Structure formats: C-alpha cells, structure tokens
Amino acid sequence: MNTFKESIEIIQEMQEHFKKRPDATFKIILDMLKKALEILEKLGILEEWTKIMDEKYGKI
After folding, report:
1. DSSP assignment letter at 43
2. What is the mean pLDDT of residues 11-34?
3. What is the Cβ-side half-sphere exposure of residue 60, based on CA atoms within 13 angstroms?
4. What 3-state DSSP class applies to 19?
5. What percent of the chain is predicted at pLDDT more than 90?
6. How far apart are CA 47 and CA 41, in angstroms?
7. What digits encode the pLDDT tens for the residues 24-36?
8. Virtual CA dihedral for 35, 38, 40, 44, nearest 10 degrees?
9. Considering Cα of 21, then 11, then 52, then 57, what sign does the dihedral take?
C-alpha cells in the first residue's frame, strides 16, 4: 500500500504522462480498474460492491 503522499506523487506522474501520451495513459487506467475488480473478487466482495454501485449509479 502507498502512503497518501506517495499516492499524490503517483497521480502527478500519471498527469504528466497523460499530457504526453493520452492513449497509453487510458490503457493504464483500464488496467488499474481491472486490477481493482480482481482484488474485490479475491476479497469476496465484488458481487456486493457491484450491487451497491448499480443502486447508486444505475446499471451500465
């Protein structure tokens, strides 16, 4: 896990990268989302999380 300061630094680096290569940065974001979903699944809370998001934001 990253500290808050490290997370801010990572976000700033991603912002700089996005300015140079928006297409690659979009892929990085998608990969991060995929990894987050995998973690939720491993924790056994993906289904519950999906229900909450569907209720809050509607189904996609």
Report:
1. T
2. 81
3. 6
4. helix
5. 0
6. 8
7. 778 888 888 888 8
8. -170
9. negative
Residue 28 Rama label (left phi>0; alpha psi -120 to 50; beta): alpha
Predicted confidence band of residue 1 (pLDDT cuts 50, 70, 90): low
Cβ-based burial of 14 (10 A; exposed 0-12, middle 13-18, buried ≥19): middle
| CA atoms of 22 and 48, how far apart (whole Å) | 33
Give the residue extent of every domain in the chain: 4-57
The DSSP secondary-structure symbol of 51 reads H
Classify the C-alpha dihedral 34-40-42-44 as positive or negative.
Answer: negative
Could you tell me the two tokens for 55? Answer: 């209720």
